[in-house]
Write a structure and sequence with these properties.
heterodimer, A: alpha+beta, Cytochrome-c3 Hydrogenase, chain B, 3-stranded antiparallel sheet, 15 helices, 8 strands, globular, B: alpha+beta, Alpha-Beta Plaits, 2 domains, two-stranded antiparallel sheet, 30% helix, 23% strand
Amino acid sequence: MSAPIQLRPDETFLLNVGPQHPATHGVLRVKMQMDGEYIVKAETVLGYVHRMHEKMGENRTYAQYLPNLSRLDYLGALGYTHGHVLAIERAAGIEVPERAEYIRAITVELNRVASHLFWFGAFVMDLGGFSPLMYAIQDREHILDMLEAVTGARLTYCYYRFGGLYNDVDDDFIEAAKRFIPRMRKSLKKYDALVTGNIIFQKRLEDIAPVSAEMCRKYGATGPVARGSGINFDVRKNEPYSVYPEFDFEVPVYHECDSMARYKVRMDEMEQSLRIIEQGLEKLPGGPIMTEKKPKNIKLPVGDFYQAVETARGSFGIRIVSDGDKNAYRLKLRSPTYSNMHLFDEACEGMLIMDALAFMGSLDLVIPEMDR
Amino acid sequence: MGGYFSEIFYGSKSLLIGMGITFREFFKPTVTVQYPYQTLKMTARYRGHIELLADEEGNPKCVACGMCQRACPSGCISLDSVSVDVEVDGKAKKKKVLSKYDLDFTKCSLCGQCVESCNFGAIDFSKEYNLASTRKEDFHFNLLQRLKRSEEKNT
């Protein structure tokens, strides 16, 4: 017979979450030192889906690197490709027709709504509610259908080109997008009543996982995570690029710093994205979608170039160091979730494990994007 | 104490509102497609794997210049050509004829750089998406053979 287990209050145990775990939404591993249900210390382990995207950027020509960017973040791929083409266009001095920029903005915002919708569904599913995921996916499907008709792909779009677009949008797309906006607004109201107003949901998120503005700055968190902590920073407003200065939209900021604030920021952002799409469709100018002189075999001048864009998850930056060759000398991708995730270790100390998993959901992690 | 009861009241109300929304979904039309039995039509711009196109005589339009091969980021296209003597306007000329066009679809990322780089309109995306196999070799496509087969089917 074995001796009865002696429990000691100072005894902690190690809990391994992941790398294959439904709550981590991908192959992220978290080593948690637990005291009962409370986390004493957490350590995130990365690198399970590292694909050397940065190194690939050094071995391929700039045009050949285009498909890689959409493989970073499979939920909001267009934002990342947008950053890449903007960086190259600015460095090489390529003029982009206005129509192309408007279409880029519209498609990026559609993609942002799709990304937030999927996050919304998955987040509520983390907390134990299944039906919102189904409703969110149903709405997202409309966006994917629209984007598929235009770009030819559903997730890993390769739509933008240096100097313009691959294909023009047709009237069907514009009609579908116009129909989608009121539909989405109705759905947002439904989500508000179904999820935001739900007492269980509120109790599980309010005052849970406080992330101070100070901590956001320390780890370089951006996007909805920082805006949920009261930092009014949005690359679209603070360092305007593309045609964003033409649009009238607000940046939702909440000062509660808890998981609920991060949730609300994203829900409000969807409405703001719809506003941008609406204005974009209204203002959409005619004309070409590609520069007259289609650039071939791009060579960047010697120098160091950086371009930041606001993706669904935060500020994505691409830095290209060029030695004047066809491919980059060094290419650095600054991915937003990589910084956002590093909050997790510090913020979840002393937290209950189920709160920590809800907190992880509120960070909106996409693992392939932070592992690159 | 009053806060306690009002919370119970508003809490149950919020749950009932939620249940009402999910209940209403029962009466909405089905949005899913029973896939193997029903299929959706692919959009005109759907990017499947590439396919060689034939000219009027049924020969591949491809002139074996190799632009697609160079444009491909993943190096999944390999082509070869042979020199053939042809008679153009009564003069004997050498002409490059495509002898091999292989696509390694396991590496392809469907970016479409090959189709864009082609100056002769010789390749296009197929609309095929029902591609599943347990063997890697099933995705090494011999596009020249595929073209011949489809031409035979058409005639």
